[in-house]
Amino acid sequence: MKRRLPALIAVLIVVALVVAGVIVSTQQSRSALIHTYTGSPTAFSFQYPDGWQVSIPIQNILLLADPAAQRGEPGATFTVQRSTALADEGSLGAALNTYLRQGALRPDRAWQQIGEVVTTALDGREALQLDLEGGDSPTDPQFHSRVVAAQAANGLIYVFALNAPLAQWSTSAPLLEAVLASARILE
Question: Phi and psi at residue 5, in whole multiples of 5°?
């Protein structure tokens, strides 16, 4: 028993350091969010870090990109899609399935679902979340994507996609999760 005690203490110290690192990383990520997007005052808002750029490439889709992605290189992005069409699906699960079938999980794309869809919360609302890995083709850079869908009070569906190159996901995820946690659906 005396020989096991030092090993147990060492394991407890390692676990405590890992937990402390996650807490510090999350706090640092939240403190890095110094800008607030309010360009859609009746629909949604979120906070984001300095150096990231907001664009609206097409109606009802917002793209927040880190400096690498802004230069056209593989980088971290946060995408918001506000959809009336998905709201017609009848349920949040059906809307998420349609979003995936028409997007990343189309037969001509090279994405794979990682794990199961889980129920979570976003801005006090029930949300569905799942992770994907892959790219638009097998030769494209590989990404990790976390997709979160929630429904606004007026029935519209919001889909948030947190994306980063596969090799950078573990370092990008805390900041992307902090941006997501700051999101507010205002309708």
Answer: -60, -50
What is the Cα–Cα distance from 7 to 30, expressed in whole angstroms? 35
Is the model more confident about 87 or about 130? 130
pTM to 2 decimals? 0.82
CA-nearest of 87, 51, 83 to 69 is: 51
> Per the structure block, which two tokens stand in for 178?
């902090």
Q: What is the pLDDT of residue 12?
A: 47
Instruction: Tokens for 52, please give them.
Output: 């990231």
Place of tokens 């994306």: 163
CA distance 94 to 105: 14
CB 63 within 8 A of CB 82: no
Q: Read off the pLDDT of each residue in 99-119 and give the average, rounded to a whole number.
A: 96
Residue carrying the six token digits 């349920």: 91
Kindly state the tokens that stand for 24. Answer: 């510090």
Kindly give the pairing relationship between strand 125-135 and strand 110-122. Answer: antiparallel
What band does 16 get if pLDDT is binned at 50, 70 and 90?
very low
The encoded tokens of residue 48 equal: 């984001």
